[in-house]
Amino acid sequence: MKSAGVLENADQLKNIMAREISLAMERRSNQAVYRASAKLSRNLTVEAKARDFTFYIDEPASFGGADKGPNPEEVVLAAVGACQAITAALYAALLGIEIKRYEVDLKGYLDLGGFYGTGGGERPTGFERVVCEVVIESDAPAKKLKEFERMVEERCVGHGTLRTPVAIESHWTINDQRVG
Question: 41 by DSSP, 3-state: which?
């Protein structure tokens, strides 16, 4: 019998989550490494790769780009929204919550002074604030949905990455010579 919700494979997702949580507890490690690459291909167009996927990140024509894809800030927002939606799907399946609809609209607010070098060093270069507008439709009890909301907000990797300062290491190779 097909569910009226958006999770057609809720039982499979529940089993995956239960298995992965159990394995993490057994091995007492939750470490993972994700990989992606980005290559400036022409003007402001960047060819990005992750696993077997290739996609383009670019600026709009009004900013000198070819408009072949979203700009980096839009990609960050979309990634956070996608992460939240996926986190919601996995935890809904684990908790037995049927989701009929789940949407996230994001707005990122930033002062471009850091990027332009006009901020006097006072402004951060990234987003100052991100607002997520979430719409969910479910027949689950309000109390269960409130707990679900807390879990999604707390456990979403995208949210956590933006909330917590992240150590970034850069290693440069200039003209085939490693520097720094």
Answer: strand
Q: pLDDT tens-digit profile of 151-160?
A: 999 999 999 9
Assigned domain for 126 exists:
yes
- Kindly write down the DSSP assignment for every residue of 4-43, as one continuous string: SSS-TTHHHHHHHHHHHHHHHHHHT--------EEEEEET
Question: Is the Cα torsion angle 132, 21, 51, 11 positive or negative in sign?
Answer: negative
Helix (H, G, I), strand (E, B) or coil at 141: coil
* Lookup: tokens for 59: 């600026």
**What digits encode the pLDDT tens for the residues 88-135?**
999 999 999 999 999 999 999 998 888 888 877 676 788 999 999 999
Domain count, the chain: 1
User: For 152, what's the count of Cα atoms within 13 Å in the CB-facing half-sphere?
Assistant: 28
pTM of the model: 0.89
Domain enclosing residue 126, as ranges: 71-179
What CATH number has the domain bearing residue 173?
3.30.300.20
